[in-house]
């Protein structure tokens, strides 16, 4: 553990003007407040914040960050308060400590909700000051280094999984690769102990057998570059076990088949020398096509810059090479932390692009599961590069589609997307993008996100925005049904109801807007009797519970203009189509389910709230289901398909449900205009010699 004077001297080495008195006070304060508390290892608890502060000095961070590291656990684990911190160390340190403290676990919540709430607070605190993240990453790294002292294996596993899923990816996204690699390695040891032991043993064997091969290859590269007049530093290393294991898992290969377990780094004086060095290496050794990546001309979103290539050394050995300048190397290893060094005059404000996307995801997410899903997508996937027609570069996860690209450019563009051109050609929206694609998004003024997009988009930002838009539309359409029901309820109140009565009713029901009431009615969150009482207290006095049906006027409610699957759901059991007589079952929190009046399943909904519905004039379009029995002989299926084509109907699905020679039975879902359209198709099927029987399913 660092002693007080050692920690202060470390800071003064790179920042002679640092407030030595404040650093001393912070050190003494954390020692006093944590007192006799101990860690699982048996060490004094204050050794942890002191070591985290030491990690921050390695990054040459400013004095406020060092003080925050020393104090980061005092509010959570001692009697100290944020006011105490502000009084003793100033407002900036208090704000940073408060940001880190907000990330503490919420023990009363279920596991996923607790993780989600931590992540939500984490992201919001990061958005205000990125130093909160830097301290938290140092805190997590030191905790991982001492994880083996925790006795409960399930707790070690939970902390390791959280580190692998959230903290290591976040370290990567801010460019702190040293932290990322160590976190991954320590978490891997806990999560996959057998794999970890196997790979580390194999690497040890290679180390003992190669006779200094890594150093020999590095020396060869340095000589080749020196002969071309380049003065460089070359170092080699084996990839760490987690990187090798992930490659084995992704490629489904054994350890022996992973050929590129050695990586070399070439450090040059300037950018021009980087490209010259790459040319020398490519002409000296054979390079692997498709493995070259230029992150100098197109840096990663976290600021990472380097040239990557793969070479064939000797007859068959494949090695990776990274080429960069010294400044790039500093930034690449410590990312945003490098910009927060005490001497930097232009510091990032923390609101980098990907962080803004994460904050947008926080706002759009509906629940804990969604938040975790979306943020993990946003921070933990390999990237590709795609361009707008004007040349603006956007980085996206591998597997992203044109819709993902649209939302990456701007949320509003994503919501208005109707089509896409990829490299000048019209392509389906679900088309996956490749590196270097030029994507032009076509938009429409009245367009809106489709629920079906969730089947192929992969970015957290797109999924969160689509779900939010669909939820808003669903709320609006359920409220529209609720308003129609409200208008009907009002006719049964024994007095004329005006705007004043509605305002008073909202106050009694503790609602803010009329739409809140309409939505509650449509979603069956409130009874008609309760609405009447809110509008006019005493209006239902003397009514028995079974008299609720008296509230119904007998007039059917039109569902015209509402969207199936949003404002209401068409029942799967009877597949009603326009023209069928329909009723609705109003289920709490599930909206209205529409059934044909003769549906056999209606008996199961006897306790639900029934609505008399109508399709409304000129309603068109629904999916009807038929059960068709064909003679089991060649050509009958083609004849049935021909009948569908002649009647201009689209087949949504076709499933063989029974084979009973000489008959085969199919269930067919068809997109039809209305009942008359479906009836014509049934008549044509029954008239065919290929069809033994046809009926609605």
From TrEMBL:
PROSITE patterns: ACT, HD, TGS. It holds the Pfam family RelA_SpoT. Residues 382-443 form the TGS domain. SMART domains: HDc, RelA_SpoT. It comes from the Bacteria. Residues 625-697 form the ACT domain. InterPro entries: ACT-like_dom_sf (IPR045865), ACT_dom (IPR002912), Beta-grasp_dom_sf (IPR012675), HD/PDEase_dom (IPR003607), HD_domain (IPR006674), NT_sf (IPR043519), RelA/Spo_fam (IPR004811), RelA/SpoT_AH_RIS (IPR045600). Residues 45-144 form the HD domain. It catalyses: GTP + ATP = guanosine 3'-diphosphate 5'-triphosphate + AMP. Its EC number is 2.7.6.5. Gene3D superfamilies: 3.10.20.30, 3.30.70.260, Beta Polymerase, domain 2, Hypothetical protein af1432. SUPFAM superfamilies: ACT-like, HD-domain/PDEase-like, Nucleotidyltransferase, TGS-like. Belongs to the relA/spoT family. In eubacteria ppGpp (guanosine 3'-diphosphate 5'-diphosphate) is a mediator of the stringent response that coordinates a variety of cellular activities in response to changes in nutritional abundance. This is GTP pyrophosphokinase rsh. It comes from Qipengyuania polymorpha.
């Amino acid at each position: 553990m660092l002693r007080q004077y050692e920690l202060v001297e470390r800071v003064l080495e790179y920042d002679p003007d640092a407030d030595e008195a404040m650093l001393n006070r912070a050190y003494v304060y954390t020692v006093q407040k944590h007192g006799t508390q101990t860690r699982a290892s048996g060490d004094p608890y204050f050794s942890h914040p002191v070591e985290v502060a030491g990690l921050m000095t390695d990054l040459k961070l400013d004095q406020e960050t060092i003080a925050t590291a020393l104090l980061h656990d005092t509010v959570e684990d001692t009697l100290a308060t944020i006011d105490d911190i502000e009084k003793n160390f100033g407002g900036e340190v208090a704000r940073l400590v408060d940001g880190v403290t907000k990330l503490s676990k919420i023990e009363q919540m279920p596991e996923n909700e607790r993780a989600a709430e931590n992540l939500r607070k984490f992201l919001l605190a990061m958005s205000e000051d990125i130093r909160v993240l830097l301290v938290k990453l140092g805190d997590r790294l030191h905790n991982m280094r001492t994880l083996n002292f925790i006795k409960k294996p399930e707790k070690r596993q939970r902390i390791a999984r959280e580190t692998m899923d959230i903290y290591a990816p976040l370290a990567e996204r801010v460019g702190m690769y040293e932290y990322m690699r160590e976190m991954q390695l320590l978490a891997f040891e806990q999560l996959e102990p057998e794999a970890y032991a196997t790979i580390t043993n194999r690497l040890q064997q290679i180390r003992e057998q190669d006779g200094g091969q890594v150093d020999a290859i590095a020396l060869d590269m340095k000589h080749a570059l020196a002969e071309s007049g380049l003065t460089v530093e070359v170092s080699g290393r084996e990839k760490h076990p987690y990187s090798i294991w992930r490659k084995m898992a992704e490629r489904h290969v054994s350890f022996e088949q992973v050929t590129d377990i050695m990586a070399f780094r070439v450090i040059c004086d300037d950018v021009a020398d980087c490209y010259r060095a790459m040319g020398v290496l490519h002409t000296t050794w054979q390079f692997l096509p498709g493995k070259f990546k230029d992150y100098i001309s197109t840096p990663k979103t976290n600021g990472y810059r380097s040239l990557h290539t793969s070479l064939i050394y000797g007859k068959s050995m494949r090695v990776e090479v990274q080429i960069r300048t010294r400044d790039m190397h500093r930034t690449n290893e410590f990312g945003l932390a490098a910009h927060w060094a005490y001497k930097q005059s232009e510091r990032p404000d923390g609101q980098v692009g990907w962080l803004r996307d994460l904050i947008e995801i926080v706002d759009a997410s509906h629940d804990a599961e969604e938040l975790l899903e979306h943020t993990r997508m946003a921070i933990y996937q390999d990237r590709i590069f795609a361009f707008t027609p004007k040349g603006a570069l956007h980085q996206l996860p591998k597997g992203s589609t044109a819709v993902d690209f649209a939302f990456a450019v701007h949320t509003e563009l994503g919501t208005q997307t109707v089509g896409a051109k990829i490299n000048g050609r019209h392509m389906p929206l679900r088309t996956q993008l490749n590196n270097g694609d030029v994507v032009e998004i076509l938009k429409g003024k009245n367009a809106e996100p489709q629920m079906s997009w969730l089947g192929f988009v992969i970015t957290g930002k797109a999924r969160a925005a689509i779900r939010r838009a669909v939820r808003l539309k669903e709320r609006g359409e359920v409220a529209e049904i609720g308003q129609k029901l409200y208008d009907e309820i009002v006719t049964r109140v024994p007095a004329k109801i005006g705007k004043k009565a509605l305002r008073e009713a909202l106050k009694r029901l503790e609602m803010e807007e009329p739409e809140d009431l309409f939505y509650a009615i449509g979603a069956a969150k409130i009874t008609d009797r309760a609405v009447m009482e809110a509008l006019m207290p005493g209006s239902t006095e003397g009514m028995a519970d079974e008299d609720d049906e008296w509230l119904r006027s007998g007039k059917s409610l039109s569902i015209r203009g509402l969207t199936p699957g949003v404002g209401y759901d068409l029942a799967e059991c009877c597949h009603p189509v326009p023209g069928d007589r329909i009723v609705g079952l109003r289920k709490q929190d599930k909206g209205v389910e529409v059934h044909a009046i003769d549906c056999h399943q209606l008996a199961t909904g006897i306790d639900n709230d029934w609505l008399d519905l109508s399709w409304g004039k000129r309603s068109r379009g629904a999916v009807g289901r038929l059960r068709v029995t064909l003679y089991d002989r060649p050509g009958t299926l083609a004849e049935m398909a021909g009948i569908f084509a002649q009647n201009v109907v689209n087949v949504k699905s076709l499933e063989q449900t029974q084979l009973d020679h000489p008959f085969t039975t199919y269930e067919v879902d068809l997109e039809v205009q209305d009942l008359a359209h479906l009836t014509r198709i049934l008549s044509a099927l029954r008239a065919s010699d290929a069809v033994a029987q046809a009926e609605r399913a």
